[in-house]
Amino acid sequence: MIRKILLPSIFVVLAYGFWISPDFKEISAGVAIFLFGMVSLEEGFKAFTGGLLERLLRRTTDKLWKSLTFGVVTTTIMQSSSLVSVITISFLSAGLIGLASGVGIIFGANLGTTTGAWLIAGFGLKVKISAYAMPMLVFGVILMFQKSRSLKGIGYILAGLGFLFLGIHHMKMGFESFKDTIDLAAYAVPGFTGLLIFTALGVFATVVMQSSHATLVLIITALSVQQITYDNALALAIGANIGTTITAILGSLSANVEGKRLAGAHLIFNLVTGAVAIIFIHQIMFAVDSISAAVGIPADDYTLKLAVFHTIFNTLGIILMIPFINTLVNFLTKTFKEKRKGLVEPRYLNEASMEFPEAVLESVRKETVHLYENAFEVIAHGISLKPDVIHSKDDLADLVHRPGKVVPFDIDAQYDLKVKVLYNAIIEYISRSQQSMPAEYSEKLFGMRQAARDIVEAVKDTKHLQKNLSRYIASDNDAIRREYNHLRVQIANVLRQLQLMRNNNEDDTVLSLDMLKVEMEKTDASVNGMMDKLIRENAITAPMATSLMNDSGYAYDISRNLVEMGATLFADHDLDVSTAESSIALDQDEIDEILANKEND
Amino acid sequence: MTMKKYLKMMAEYFDEDQRKFSNKKKSIKHILKKLKKREKSLKQDLENESNKSKKKSIAREIEIAHAQRNKGIKALKELNKK
Predict the structure, then answer these.
(1) Judged by CB atoms within 8 Å, which residues 149-168 of A form the interface with B?
(2) How far apart are CA A317 and CA A319, in angstroms?
(3) What is the DSSP string of A291-313?
(4) N- to C-terminal Cα distance for chain A?
(5) Which of A497, A492, A518 is nearest to A507 (CA)?
(6) pLDDT tens digits, residue range A59-75?
(7) In sequence order, which residues have a C-beta less than 8 Å from that of residue A547 and are 6 or more positions away?
(8) What average pLDDT does chain A have?
(9) What value does the CA radius of gyration of chain B take, rounded to a whole number of Å?
(10) Largest Cα–Cα distance in chain B?
(11) pLDDT band at residue A220 using 50, 70 and 90 as cut-offs
């Protein structure tokens, strides 16, 4: 009910405000233009995700000081801690970074956001900022219409900055003329009550605008024309810092448990920092005065002093919280417990990861690896081998000479439980996220979908193979037992090689799959020759021979599907290297040529 | 660095096709280096191996690595021509 009437009520109040006060209209338009600028800026930076940002994120978050610096620098450049926190949640949910790194970035982002106050107080109010806005908008819009993604991104960033500046200009103009009609400073509340009331107002304004930056600009512009008192402005800034966590909280609603933990860290950090600032407000104000005097800021330049205050209390928060970062991570891990999921539920597919192409791709890749892990067990048991044997370094060829021990295994039930559910989830997720993906990512996603399909096909073929295999590997007939054991060895070899590739062994790349392809073709050809010989020598019966013929086909298909899956799923993370590797990998004709050479030898 | 090099770098950055092209060349060179090293180590393994069937398998691996390397060299030559 409240939700239904909230938006129309806001519209009515705003419309009434615009009608009675043109200055209020100008200030509101300034806020709207400023927020639009932020949206445009975010759009621009999104154009650079899928490369630069991810590479930076991976390389610069392995140590706490690095994640802190990353948070500070990116927020300073992007001028949006919200964007940084949403990206961080998205990447954390996709498993690209760890919780401790995420917390470090969020702490850093809090410090980075203070640079905004410096820019506006030190530059925005003293220079005719709208003069910079116009050329930025013109150049930005021209670039926005370019074909190249990078140029388009730069266009959005320029236009975004232009709108930010234009918004600030309108807010400033609005407040300047507002000053002549109404004196907001008359509503100033002194003392501790005022501090609490204005902190709450700051929280409210930031929750509504979803941007502490916009609130801070409003505070600074209002302060510059003495529409609010310095004390109340400080309280509003504290409130804005607490209110900004709402973006992260909203972003984490659709994230997995890791994202929720990070939003929790963000909230705790900003609440603690806010509480410390409120309790020690006089001491911090004294520090602001001393530092301002030391760096030559005039005692009556309250806007710059607000920037100093903002920086001091966020730095204080970081200094206070850093020693407890591990305690915080442990506390959050205990508070937000991961639901005990069986093997059957998707682990990485969540709404929060759908924001950025790279995160979608990584989520799908990890979920397909999860699908493969389950399929690995089903296939291994299906060919009556324990997964440990495949993981070990034992010579698999020894299997051929040993009588096999059949592992009882209901492959149908396991397929429904461990494979089908995940496969369905992957297909659904890909279909939903594909609409908003750039072309090169769509192609990659298509490859992932094919890899998932290959896995499922391999499991299905194992089901067909299992029936005769479990009968013949325990047979007294040496010949048929040996042939079926050969098939087991062939599949086990493929599984082992894929395992090595998964573990990122330097020598085991997509190119090493060519050896498996050659082996597969060789086995397939030799089974046919061997079968004729065995029938002629009466070593196997005709029904045995037809079973073997069908089942060697299944074994070939299982291996082929797994090899093709491996080429996609376990390819090098570097897109350029993986593309080059697949261009060098041998095609069917080249493999046939190698096999022909061997026959001639 | 000369102005010409800066301009080339800028042009590469803004021209996606050019950037992809030069990354492709770099990646192939990197793989060729790895393949050469692998071929050399496999040859060493072949000399030290006494088991006949394992020797055969290593020889096949050498042949595959060699074929891949030839394919890579050919691809690199084609790229250099462009």
Answers:
(1) 149-151
(2) 6
(3) HHHHHT--TT-HHHHHHHHHHHH
(4) 83
(5) A497
(6) 777 788 888 898 888 88
(7) A468, A472
(8) 82
(9) 19
(10) 61
(11) confident
Of A209, A281, A248, give the one whose Cα is nearest residue A30: A209
In terms of pTM, does the model score above 0.80? no
Q: Which residue has the tokens 């979908």?
A: A449
* Distance to chain B for A577, nearest Cα, Å: 5
Measured distance CA(A348)–CA(A367) in Å, rounded = 6
Contact A86, A254 (CB under 8 A): no
pLDDT surpassing 90 at residue A437: no
What amino acid is encoded at B17 in this protein?
A: D
Q: Which residue has the tokens 């926005």?
A: A144
User: How does pLDDT run across A531-588, given as a tens digit for each residue?
Assistant: 888 888 888 888 888 888 889 899 999 999 999 998 888 887 777 788 888 888 888 8
Nearest to A586 among B16, B24, B64 (CB): B64
**How long, in residues, is chain A?**
601
Q: Which residues contact A31 (CB under 8 A, 6 or more apart)?
A: A167, A171, A209, A214, A218
Identify whether the C-beta of residue A462 lies closer than 8 Å to the C-beta of residue A383.
yes
What value does the mean pLDDT take over residues A72-91? 76
Return the pLDDT at A124: 65
Q: How far is CA A466 from CA A459, A521, A523, in A?
A: 10, 21, 19
The SS3 call for residue A94 is coil
> Residue A122 class from Cβ within 10 Å (0-12 exposed, 13-18 middle, 19+ buried)?
middle
Residues A138, A144, A150: CA angle, nearest 5 degrees: 125
Question: Does the beta carbon of A581 lie under 8 angstroms from any beta carbon of chain B?
Answer: yes
pLDDT value for A368: 92
Type of residue found at A480: I
Q: Mapped to the 3 state alphabet, what secondary structure does A149-202 carry?
A: HHHHHHHHHHHHHHHHHHHHHHHHHHHHHHHHHCCHHHHCCCHHHHHHHHHHHH
Yes or no, beta carbons of B27 and A577 under 8 Å apart: yes
Scan for tokens 């924001």, then name that residue.
A355
